[in-house]
Amino acid sequence: MAVLKNFEEKVVKLEDFCTNLELFDDTNKSLDDWMTRAADELDKIKHHSHEMVPEDRVAVCMELQEDIAAKVLVIEENIEKEKNLLPQGESVPKDALEHKDELLRIHKFVLDLQEKVRQECAAFSEDVKFWAEYKTGVKEFTPWIESAEKESADGLSKPTTLPEALQLYDKINLFDKSCLAHIKILDAANEAAQKMTTHQEADDQIKVLKERYSKVKKVADSWATKVNTLVQEWKLLDSTVNELNDWVAKDK
After folding, report:
1. In the structure, what pLDDT confidence band is assigned to residue 217 with cuts at 50, 70 and 90?
2. Which of 133, 148, 184, 196 has the fewest CB atoms within 10 Å of its CB?
């Protein structure tokens, strides 16, 4: 009877061991599958994040961080279970050693992944600041360029007197100064965008805005040259007329 009871106890222990070993192995397999998906998610974040605004990139990164942190806890629990489940020491059977090595591989991979995601999240957090600077600059530049394009398309009024020509010259001078001031705003926005981890969308937008600016500035430069010539010629003509009037007056 005692032999039978002892046998039954050993059978129960063996069944418990097999059940625990199966759970241990299933957990490792589940973690291995998850590792592939998590690595793919990190790859998407690194190489396709330009499709998202920085706030969304940070949110996705943080979600992955939380998922990894949860898996690290599961792995650490499995490490503790392994100490009680599998043989320890130097003479470890091959099968048990394979389980141990697999758990160590998973643990190292997930810790490395956790660090990589942490670095990406830190970089994306900086992106939020630079993105805000970029958007602020573009928001200020865009309505100005729209107004400047309309003004350049409307053309210049034709002065009929020197005072009107001088007034037009002052107007064009102010327009040119406005051009120079606003290209600095766009350049600052571009500098902020270049500091972001990914900035393809910003590059495309800045390129279009600079092309629009170049057309407006070309018109402004042309206006300045023409009106400056007109004013100089008018002043010369006015001076000549005054000299002629003085000469005629002296002749009387």
Report:
1. very high
2. 184
